[in-house]
Specification:
Elements: H1 17-24, E1 29-37, H2 46-55, H3 58-62, E2 64-69, H4 74-81, E3 86-89, H5 94-103, E4 104-110, H6 116-121, H7 126-133, E5 138-141, H8 146-150, E6 156-159, H9 165-177, H10 179-192, H11 200-207
Parallel strand pairs: 1-2, 1-4, 2-3, 4-5, 5-6
């Protein structure tokens, strides 16, 4: 937008610096947790994530978990509660989410569907930057700006925007089995978000001038 209209100031939904500081204090261990935070809706890939988890080989399911933090579609949430390996956390504050990720080995999910809203208007997705600020690898869709942020910076893996559960399961399995790749993505995520320009405080300073 800034390139097209000189009078436009585009503001990114970067997280406040407390997310980055929380990421620096993490000591993750234990089973791999695939995590999602945000509105629990089908177009945000929550249902696809749960279906993909059920497609994982049994040995990986035994050594990993899927955690959904948020509220939204009541029927979808009720269905998710019945699925093995899936845990729903309602009414969780950002601080509580940060506390959870501080001691768990996590991969963030940012699975926006390829709808006109996201593919044409863009994503500017807060949760993506929150995951990265916490030093978490991500799995996201090839929608909006996600490929630019994720693929070119080597912080995670991508799937198509049609939210195919099998394709997602393949990428989940890949991260589950490749510790070297997981750790590389984690380091790159922390490095990307280490600068002050990647915080909400910096973005707000661009407005408050």
């Amino acid at each position: 937008l800034e390139r097209w209209q000189p009078s436009v100031l585009e503001i990114h939904n970067y997280p406040s610096s407390v997310w980055r500081e929380s990421g620096r204090m993490r000591s993750p261990a234990g089973r791999l947790c695939f995590v999602y935070i945000g509105g629990v809706y089908a177009e945000k890939g929550v249902g696809a994530a749960a279906e993909a988890f059920q497609l994982l080989p049994e040995v990986i399911q035994r050594n990993s978990e899927l955690h959904v933090f948020g509220e939204g579609d009541v029927r979808l949430i009720q269905r998710l509660r019945t699925m093995p390996g899936v845990t729903i956390h309602n009414g969780v504050t950002p601080a509580e989410f940060q506390k959870f990720t501080a001691t768990h080995r996590c991969c963030g999910l940012a699975l926006l569907a390829n709808t006109p809203r996201y593919s044409l208007v863009g994503t500017n997705c807060t949760k993506l930057f929150e995951y990265l600020a916490l030093g978490m690898p991500v799995i996201a869709t090839r929608v909006g700006e996600f490929p630019l942020w994720i693929g070119s910076r080597q912080v995670g893996l991508l799937i198509d925007g049609d939210l195919n559960p099998q394709q997602l399961a393949t990428q989940m399995q890949r991260l589950s089995e490749d510790d070297i790749l997981f750790d590389k993505f984690s380091r790159n995520a922390s490095a990307l978000m280490s600068g002050n320009e990647m915080t909400w405080e910096h973005e707000w300073s661009r407005i408050d001038q």
